[in-house]
Amino acid sequence: FNLAVLISGNGSNLQALIDACASSALPNTRITHVISNRKAAYGLERAKKASIPTSYHNLVPYKKKHAETLDGAQVARAEYDADLAKIVLNLDPRPDVIVCAGWMHIVTPDFLNPIAEADIKIINLHPALPGEFAGAGAIERAWQAFQKGDIKRTGVMIHEVIAEVDAGKAIVTQEVPLREGESLEDLEQRIHGIEHELIVEGTRRTLATIKR
Ligand code: GRF
Fold first, then answer.
1. Ligand 1: nearest atom to the Cα of 103
2. 63 C-alpha to center of ligand 1: Å?
3. What is the pTM of this model?
């Protein structure tokens, strides 16, 4: 199977997938392309070290082109996403699954629709449980809710990607109990460790649904 991985940052989840493809955790599976929306994403270095082709897909030129357009931000995002779909659809070999691993954009139908038409699955990692703390900064918001006594646990999920942020059907979830006195940094470390397990398990389950 072929995976394309979308990243924006450190790429520790990408690294977990690279390692899983190298071991027997994801048999007969390789990452054939990594796309980042940030040039400085360390995940691009991880891809290069693993001899995985990379693309940098930058939103800025689209924003500049539409700076004077009414609703320019939406138009720019639509064109950006349509081109992102073209990048993916032009990959050879085409990916069976796209894994959003710390991809900090909300994908729009301009990306999702062409990908769905090509029968390519898209999954996303989100460090919260279904319906909780959607969007960025989920771990910190859960930690703050715990300090206020509002929750006792948070979690991590891999879910199918739809146009609404972090809202697609969950593929695999894991609860993470919160601990009195634990710092946000320590919680983040604990959660990232669970992300690295779930990103592999979520990819494995998704691949298992593909009929060759
Ligand atoms: C995850 O918590 C993800 O949800 C957030 O950043 C972390 C991914 O980091 N966007 P990495 O780039 O995979 O290390």
1. 10
2. 25
3. 0.95
Most informative mutation of 8, 13, 99, 106 for ligand 1 (most atoms within 8 A of CB): 13
Supply the ipTM of this predicted assembly.
Answer: 0.92
CB distance 65 to 89 below 8 Å:
no
Closest CA to 172 of 209, 206, 132: 206
The CA-based angle 179-151-153, given to 5 degrees, is: 50
Closest to 192 measured CA to CA, from 99, 125, 124: 125
Pairing of strands 30-36, 97-100: unpaired
CA of residue 128 to ligand 1 center, whole Å: 12
Cβ atoms 4, 34 nearer than 8 A:
yes
Q: pLDDT digit string (tens) for 44-84?
A: 999 999 999 999 999 999 999 999 999 999 999 999 999 99
Nearest-atom number in ligand 1 for the CA of 104 is 10
33, 126, 159, 196: the active-site residue? 126
Active-site residue, 126 included: yes
CA-191 nearest atom, ligand 1: 2
